[in-house]
Amino acid sequence: MNLFEYTISELRRLLRRKELSPTEVTEALFSRIAEVEPKINAYNYLNHERAIERAKTVHVDLPLGGIPIAIKDNINVRAEPCRCASKILEGYLAPYNATVIEKLTKAGAILVGRTNMDEFAMGSSTENSATGLTKNPWDLQRVPGGSSGGSAAAVASHEAFCALGSDTGGSIRQPASFCGCVGLKPTYGRVSRYGLTAFASSLDQIGPLTKTVEDAALLLEVISGFDPNDNTSEKMPVPRFSELLETLSLKNMVLGVPKEYFIEGIDGEVREAINKAIAHFESLGAKIEEVSLPHTPYAVATYYILATAEASANLARFDGIRYGRRAKHYEDLLDYYGKTRDEGFGSEVKRRILLGTYVLSSGYYDAYYLRALKVKEKIKQDFSSVFKKCQALLTPTSPFCAFRIGEKSNDPLQMYLADIFTIAVNLAGICGLSIPCGQSTEGLPIGLQIIGPAWKEEVILAIGHLYQKSTGWKPPIPPLGKNVIE
Amino acid sequence: MEYEAIIGLEVHVQLKTQTKLFCGCPIEYGALPNSRVCPICLGLPGALPSPNKQAIILTIQTGLMLGSEIASRGKFDRKNYFYPDMPKNYQISQYDQPLCKGGAVQLYPLAFPKDAQKDPQAQSRKKIRLVRIHLEEDVGKSFHFEDYSGIDFNRAGTPLMEIVSEADIRSPEEAFAYLTALRQILRYGNVSDCDMEKGQLRCDVNVSVKPIGEEKWGTKCEIKNLNSISAVRKALKYEIQRQIHTLQLGGEISQETLRWDDLKGQTFPMRTKEYAHDYRYFPDPDLLTILTEGELIEEAQKRIPELPEEKKQRLSQSYGLTEYQASVLAADPQLADYFEKAAAQSANKVSVANFLINDYLAVASESETTIPIPPEYFSELSNLVDQGKLHMKQAKEIVKLMVTEKKSPTLIVQEKGLGQITSLDTLDAICQEAIEANPKSVADYRSGKTAAINAIKGYVMKKTKGQANPQIVHELLEKKLNALG
């Protein structure tokens, strides 16, 4: 077995027994990156030197001591670029660490580099990146999903042992599903957003992308917890997620299957794989019950109103006055703002800023923004009433497998539907996990989404872990070879 | 045709907190540009605001002092517009749920400009109602050089309280009095120093006019960023005249935002283009709802001092002071405290008040807040006068010496050999000598020119270096002269 194939928990064991050194692990990873990265383009920035320096001094008995990790390009790391895959942040070096970075560093993790993404986390394919496409390790003609496509592709192709992503409407779970790895969106307020370049503040949440559920639990344990620097982070105790994985039994557990998630248009093979997974849980003793989340059809529209409204304000600071790229030729201040932002932002970002500006404009606020807030409440209520009956929900993560590069990029509305099954979880502020649950005939991964109530990550992680253990899941090595786009 | 004006004020007050509204950066006037900043107040990507509890408490306290209704839930909103000195290109403010609603500021005669204190307007004790008080963050400051501009973000994120009045104000003098009275309350509560030179109190005024008797008010103009109370008065005076003049000539007032040039004494339009602002307010998703009930309101309540009006009433009632004396003392809570300490051991409280107001303030006008001499000195001084050991003129001299030499009045009297000679024996001898030395005046007196006694008295005073008690000398001389028979 190649060193780069190990999971975090395996690495931890070996590092602590001194059978491996952090330097060996880091070097092995960088040689894997050197080999694979030209095909995948998962990273926007790599810092080999810094990682090796760190590996030399890190203590292996720390929770993540000596474990290399990749960070999405929208999470600030001191003295490193934080471009959010945008031209407008060219040349910007973050002067401070995000809280999650402080926590990772304290836990002994080694930062490898920054992963590619859709510009400012807006997109579902990682095609909207100013630093080029990331390709799906399972089929290089296909997208890795988005917006944390770089993180998912890096983990799936074993260019990273684990990664952090951010999930606003499915941006961790959907690419995890497309690439065949594990992705967790924690409860809103569980992980500090301090240092995460905001897309939609009320929905964004940082979470792990890993090879196994067990690894996701380990990583979540480290990055969670109240942060006085984030007013929306909650003073909730952080359970030892990794130790709770084995404590759950499916006996007497009710798992809900929301009927609104099995709509027409869902890919046949996806439906089949999910049904198989559901049947597997039933065979393990879970009681499966059909439930209803009646406001699901409004989730996508609600999301695009709230998320773009917040984004229009969050992205206003990128104006070329204080940092980043600036227009060279302009007439006056207004022209300067216009040209800087026109040159700096890609079309998807512009589209969303315009939409957000529109829905907040006087005269439209009540009709769009305020109404969307009310629908958001309804969606939240849907989930709370369903969670009175069951402990978790099972749904597909995406209605289809990874699509071809360019297939949906000219049709924004089609693209928006890629997140149709993940968006409601963000609106409700609850937690969701995507795990691989099969492959299409074309060899593309299919993701199962396990949705849990707020602050119940230990439940969905335990369910996911049980699935992986009982099915004998091993992180596969994707082919990488076929259908290379040069 | 006679015109009348209607005026509304928006006052921005810098709160007296150690740190900024959403981060831990210190608030420091005059620090090196961009030396008091962090990722949060610079609005760097990923930085998030954490509200300063003190600023919220001070705002609630202000509301309580001004009789506002305190909202049980407050929230912060984003006000979106692009401006180079605004780090995030939105300002965190409060839109539809301000912390305080309503309330009022009462005007009092001494708050009016000196030349208007006797006007009926000043005597009417009018109340100016408030619309709201909310909390927001300040922006940075731009500096324009020959071929480039610079921005100092030290001020960005400083907590500002915005106090919006109803359009209850009818004259520049009332606006002056409103600001003076408001500032007094804010200083009283230790909510803000209201130092206008440091930009701690800035205001925007809205003004429109109409012919008396007509119902509809004319078009409103806004004068932005006035930074002294007298500038507010001057700008309003000018602007009201300008509007009336324009209307009289048959012109129209266009709705504009103006700035005031203090040197030229004129208002000027700030923007040439008229464009409607759409701030696209929405609740800031980075900040939670503020629940005021419980700790926040309790803390605010604890901070409320006796207010100027109450203090005035109490001072005049318990010490028998005139309204003027009580007002002057109440205008400065520290002076009032000092007075109360000084008066405690004095037999004549009014005389202590007079020494403080008439003599001490004149001498010590440069040291505004601290009074370097112990309050007992004033009670001592007033008691010396009261016991007839000093006369008024001497006492006034001693106030000066107390400040410069920092010695007690008794000590000064001893050292300088001041104090009055009241000993009948001593004075009797000197009076006898005076009569003998001034035969002409004695003769004049005896012939009926009673005023001639003053010359003899002058001799005594000269001889005693002014220390003789004039009352006793007068009585002694009269007795002696009449006895010459």
What does this structure look like?
The complex is a heterodimer of chains A (486) and B (485). Chain A has 486 residues and is of the alpha/beta class. Chain A has a domain at 3-248 and 458-471: Amidase signature (AS) domain (Amidase signature (AS) enzymes), CATH 3.90.1300. Chain A contains 16 helices and 11 strands. An 11-stranded mixed β-sheet of chain A has the order 1-3-2-4-6-5-10-11-9-7-8, sandwiched between helices. In chain A, strand 10 and strand 11 form a beta hairpin. With 485 residues, chain B is an alpha+beta fold. Chain B is elongated and about 100 Å long. In chain B, 39% of the residues lie in helices and 18% in strands. In chain B, strand 9 and strand 10 (149-152) form a beta hairpin. In chain B, strands 1, 2, 6, 7, 8, 11, 12, 13, 14 and 15 form a 10-stranded mixed β-sheet that branches. A 3-stranded antiparallel β-sheet of chain B has the order 5-4-16, with no helix packed on it. Chain B folds into 3 domains: 3-299, no CATH class; 308-416, no CATH class; 424-484, Orthogonal Bundle (Arc Repressor Mutant, subunit A), CATH 1.10.10.410. Chain A binds chain B through residues 74-76, 82, 84, 89, 92, 94-96, 98, 193-198, 200-202, 228-232, 309-310, 312-313, 316-319, 321-323, 333, 337, 357, 360-362, 365, 369, and chain B through 39, 42-51, 78, 80, 82, 84, 87-90, 151, 278, 280-282, 284-288.
